[in-house]
Amino acid sequence: MTKKLTIALAGNPNSGKTTIFNTLTGARQKVGNWPGVTVEKKEGKLKHKDYDLRIVDLPGTYSLTPFSIEEITARDFILNENPDIVISIIDASNLERSLFLAIQILELGHPALFVLNMADVAQAKGIKIDEKKLSQLLGLPVVFTIGNKNKGIDNLVEAAIEEVNRFSKGKKSRDIRYGQEIEGCISKIETGILQSEIDIDGALRWNAIKILEDDKIVKTRFQNLSSQVSKEVFQTAGECRKRIYDLFEDDFEIVLTDDRYGVIAGIAKETISNLATKRIDMSRNIDLVLTDRFLGIPVFIFFIWAMFQLSFSLGAYPMEWIDMAVSALSGSLDKIMPPSMLKDLLLDGVIAGIGSVIIFLPNILILFFCIALFEDTGYMARAAFLMDRVMHTSGLHGKSFIPMLMGFGCTVPAIMATRTLESEKDRILTILMTPFMSCSARLPVYIVLAGSFFAEKAGTVIFGLYFTGIVIAILSGRLLRAVFFKGVEAPFIMELPPYRMPMLKSLLIHMWDRGKMFLKKMGGVILIGSIIIWALSSFPRTISYSVDYDEKINAVKYDYSQRITLAADHETEQLNRQLTLLLKDINNRKEQERVSKSYIGKIGKALEAVFEPIGIGWRASVALVTGFVAKEVVVSTMGVLYGVGNDESEALEKALKNSGMTALSALSMMVFVLLYVPCFATVVTIYRETSAKWAGFNLIYTTMVAWGMSFLVYRTGMMLGFG
Amino acid sequence: MINTHEQEKKQFKRLFQQQGIDRFALRFQVLEAFLKLEHHVTIKDILAQLRQEGLKIDEGFVLNSMELLCRFGFASKIEFHDKETKYEHRHLGLHHDHMVCLQCGSILEFKDEAIEKQQHKVADAYGFHMLQHKMEIYGICSKCMEHRNTIVSLHKAKQGEKLIVKDFDAGKNMQLRISSMGLKIGDLVEIVSAGFGGQVVIAVGENRLVLGKGMAEKIRVQPFDQVRIQNHDDYQEPKDILQASMLLSQMKTGQEGIIRKVSGESVLRRRLLEMGINRGSVIYVEKYAPLKDPIELVIKGYHLSLRVEEAANIFVEKVRFKKM
Known about the structure:
The structure holds 2 protein chains of 2 kinds.
Chain A lengths: L2 E9 L5 H9 L3 E5 L6 E9 L2 E7 L11 H13 L3 E7 L3 H13 L4 E6 L1 H6 L2 E3 L1 H8 L3 E3 L8 H16 L11 H17 L7 H9 L3 H10 L1 H22 L3 H20 E3 L7 H9 L5 H19 L1 H21 L4 H18 L2 H17 L1 H14 L8 H6 L4 H7 L6 H10 L9 H12 L3 H26 L9 E3 L8 H35 L10 H18 L2 H29 L1 H8 L1 H4 L6 H9 L5 H10 L7 H10 L4 H13 L4 H10 L2 H28 L4
Helix pairs in contact in A: 3-11, 7-8, 7-10, 9-10, 13-16, 14-15, 15-23, 16-23, 19-32, 20-22, 21-22, 21-30, 21-31, 22-31, 23-32, 24-25, 25-26, 26-28, 28-29, 31-33, 32-33
Chain B lengths: L1 H18 L4 H13 L6 H10 L6 H13 L3 E4 L7 E4 L7 E5 L5 E4 L2 H13 L10 E4 L2 H6 L4 E2 L8 E7 L3 H9 L7 E9 L2 E6 L2 E5 L1 H6 E5 H7 L13 E4 L7 E8 L3 H9 L7 E7 L6 E5 L2 E5 L1 H4 L2 E8 L3
Parallel strand pairs in B: 3-5
Antiparallel strand pairs in B: 1-2, 3-4, 6-11, 7-8, 7-11, 8-9, 9-10, 12-17, 13-14, 13-17, 14-15, 15-16
C-alpha cells in the first residue's frame, strides 16, 4: 500500500532550494500562484519505495515576519496545510544566517529536517560542520547534500521519511530556549492560552511568541477564536512587552532577534570549525570586473545588448517559421473551407489573433533563458547593485531596471519579468511604468507617420518619442509612489550571492515555465479578445454600401473582357494589368467603406469627438481603437481606411498626405500611440500579474496620460502656428 | 639674578683654577658674556656679545669653553629638534622645561610641579631610578597661532599634526587624482613626515600616502583639535585614529568595524537584524557601487548590499582598514 506524504521545502533565496526541488521532482512539476497572491507556487511529485511524495517549494525568504507576502505565504502553508515534514535547506557555507530562518521554522513545531546544502562550497571555503553535534543540539536529523551534483538527495528523502515516522510514534520537536526574561514572558502567555482551552493546532509556543512580537496577523486570527480570552492574553502580552522595553530599551521582537542570533552563535561555535586560513574567493575576483567602478556599468550594458541581440536576431528565424506555419494553415483552410461566417471567424479571428501573439514565443523563450541565466549565476543581484542609484530616483528598486529595459522589446515578457522583484509595491509600480517604454510593435507606426511627415528629421522625432516615454515613466513612477504607495519604501537589503555555475536543466525548466505560462494564459484570453475584435470589425454582415461595388466590379470585368478579346495580342498583357489595378482599387474602396460602417468603425466615429481636440480624424481614431489588439494593427487599419490596402506603406504615405493630415496631427498621433495602453495582451498580463483593479487602472491611466500629452502637443503646436 | 651670577663667577674661578684649566682669563670673559645674555643662546650669540665688548676670540675656543662650562654645570646645552645648538644658564637647584615653537623658533620655559611629581611616579612605577630628565614640548606658540589661518594648505602642516581634510582647492583632474588615492573631505590625516622638497607623507587610517608638493598645496586642512573645540558636541572624538566609531555610511572601502548599534524605524531595524546585522558582528565594506550607492558589505561571511541611507542607521566602532 502506498502512503502519501507532503514535504515542504523552505530556505533562503540562493540556498540552492530550487536546485534540490528540480533534482527531486525533475520535470514532474506544476507551477502556479499561491491562492490570492502573485507569489509563485511550485509543486512536484516523487515516488520513493512505498511512498507517494508531494513536494512543495515554499517561497525563498530570510525570515518569517509578517511584512512580506512570501514570508506570510510560507508560514501559512506550514501552519494551515500541515505538511508532514518541513525540510530547511541551509547554505552550509553560510550557516549562521541560514540557521536564523531554519530555527524559526523549527519553532513552528512541525517535524523538521535540516539539509546542509552546497557542502562542497563550504568545504572549499575551509568550513567544517559537525553535523552530528548539530543534530544533537537541535534534536532533528541533519543531512549533507550537493544539490547541483545530485549528491545526498536519496539520503535526504530517506531521512525525511524516517523523521515523519518518528513523529508519528510520538516524538516532539525540541524548543529553542532564549534568555530568562524572554522565556518568562513566553510561559506567561502560554499559560494564558492554555487556560482558555483554545485549540491552536499544537503551535502553542510559536503563537505565544508571535503574540508577544505583536504580530498583527496572528493576533487577528487569535481574536477570531475567542475575543474574551484574547483580550486578557493581549493585555498580559502588552505588560510583558513593556517590561522588556524597560529592561533592554528595545522592542520585544528586536530583543528576541538579538537573542536568536545569540543562540545561533552558540550553535555555530560548537559545530563549525574553520580549517583553512587562506582561501581564494572566486566571486570576489569576478566582481573586481563586473562591479568595478569604471567597468561595471559598461559590462552590464554589454550584457543587456547581447541579450536583446540574441533574442531578436536568433529569435527572428523561429518567428519566421511560425509566421509561415500560420499563413500556411490559414491558406490551406482558405482552400478547403467553403466561404462562410465560420471560415471568416476561424481565419480572420482565431488564427490571425492567436498568430499575432504566438509569434512572440521565440522572443519570450530566449529573453527568459537569458534572465534565468542572470538569476542562476548570481548576476541579477549585481545588476540591481549597479543600477539601484538610477532606479531609486523614480522610487524603484535596482532590479526594476531589467523589466523596464525589456519593455523596449515587448511589454508582455517585461511585465512577466517583474517577478524577480521581491516587494509587491515595487512590482506593481514597475508593472505600471513599463508600458511607457516604447515597445518594438510601436515602431512601425512611427516609421510610417514620421517617415511621411518629417522626412529626414524622422530619426530625431522617433528618438524624441522614446525619450518622452522614459520621462513620462519616471514622472509616473514618482506620482504613483506618492499617491498609492505612500509610506516608507521597502529597504534595499539584498544579498549578493556567490557566483555559481548555472545548471542547464534549471535554465530550461525556468524558460519553459515562462513559455507555458505565456501560451496558456495568453491563449485563452487572447482567443476571446481576438474573436471580439473580429466580430466588431466584421459585423454587421450586411452593409448598405453607398455604391454597388459588386456591380461595378462586374461592369469593369465585362468591359475589360470585351476589350481584351478585341485587342491585339501585344496589348492583352497591359490590359490585364490595368484590370487588376482597377479591381484592387474598387476592392480597397469597398473594404474602406465596410470597415467604416462596421461596429468598430462606428466606435471610431463615435470617438471622433474625443480625438478631435488632439487633431486626430475619424480614420486615425478607428486605427487607434483597433491598435488595442496590437500596435502593428494601427498601420494595417490605416492602410484599409485610407483605401490603399494593408501592405503598401509607400502608398499609405501618399494617401496620408492627401487626406489632409498635418505634421502636427501626425506628431500628436504618435505621442498618443507611444503612451496609450500598448495592447490587449499587456492588459491581460497586468491582470494576471496583479489584479483586475490595477489592469483597469492602467488602462484608464495610460489613456488619460496619452490624451493629455497629445492635447498638450497639438494645442501648443497650434498656438505656435504649426499645423 | 645678579647675586646668583656673582656666585657662579666665584665658583667658576675656584673650579677652573683648581682644575688648572688653561687660558683662564679668556674663558672667564666667555662666561661673563654668556651670563650677560639671557635665555637660550647660540655660539654665534656669544661671539657677537664678545665682539661688542671688543674682544676677538675665535669660534673654536668659545665652543670649547662652552663645553667646559657645561661639564662643570654652569651652562646646559639644549639640542632642540633640527635647530642650532643652544646654551642656557644652569643655576643649580633650579629646574625648568621647554616649549619650542616650530613656527618662529621661540622657546618658552615652564615648570609644572604636577609634571615633575608625575615623572617620579612613573619612574617609580617602572622601578626606574631617575637621575635627571629633559622635557621639550614642540608646537606652535600662542603668537603664531593668532596669525595662523585655521584652514591651511596641507604642505604647511607640521610633522605629527592631526588634521581634518576640509576642501580641495583643485581642478577636476587633480580632485580625481586625490580621491583615487582614497582621500576624502572629512578624513582625519596625520602628518608622518614633511619637508623633503615639499613632499608630505601622511597617514589616513592605516594607509600611508605620499603627496607631492603640488598636490599637498591643493589640499586644505584644519587642525584636528580646532575642529574638536568648535564642535565638541557632535564630534565623536576618536580615542585613536584607528579606533574611530562612525556610521556605516561614512566608512570607506576596505574598512572593517564592529557594529555597536542599529537604529532606525522598527521594521527596517528588524530586517537588518534578520540579515545578520546585529550588535557585535564584524562588518566589512567591500565596495561602493559605481554611482556611489548602494554599498556592498561582508557580514557573517556573506555579501550584502544596502543603500547609503539605510547604512546611516548603523553605528560602527573600532573602524580600521583591513586587508582581505
